[in-house]
Amino acid sequence: MAGPDRPGTPPPGEASRRPPVSPLRAGLAGRCPACGRGALFDGLLALKPACGHCGHDLSAADPGDGPAVFVVLILGILAGGLGLIVEMRAHPPLWVHALILLPVIGGGTVALLRVIKGLLVCYEYHHDAREARLDRDPEP
């Protein structure tokens, strides 16, 4: 919804005039959730303040700690499973586990954080998510 609490979003009805952008495709590609063309990230993990293609304001996008939670859950399962498989098959010393798992965890963290952060920002835009308010809070 447009308004002072959600700058950069189109007024009601205007969004339907734009071609639909898949939040899944835009998020995985690291593209703007509004147009699907402009870059979402400024560097490795920092969000751009605005889309360079359509001008959509990205400063209101806030995935919070969500990406980190998903990365911990996903990589915890993968790294734990890999560690168990290596231990069951080869019984290597501890330093071999570290040699195998530390690069997997480190690289996987950076790669997954970027992808999941992009997905959460795009789905946040797609579903018009915003900060929750109680009914007793005064309207701005």
UniProtKB/TrEMBL annotation:
The chain crosses the membrane at residues 68-87, 94-116. The keyword Transmembrane helix applies. Residues 1-22 are annotated as: Disordered. This is Uncharacterized protein (DUF983 family). It comes from the Bacteria. It comes from Rhodothalassium salexigens DSM 2132. The keyword Transmembrane applies. InterPro entries: DUF983 (IPR009325). It holds the Pfam family DUF983. Keywords: Membrane, Transmembrane, Transmembrane helix.
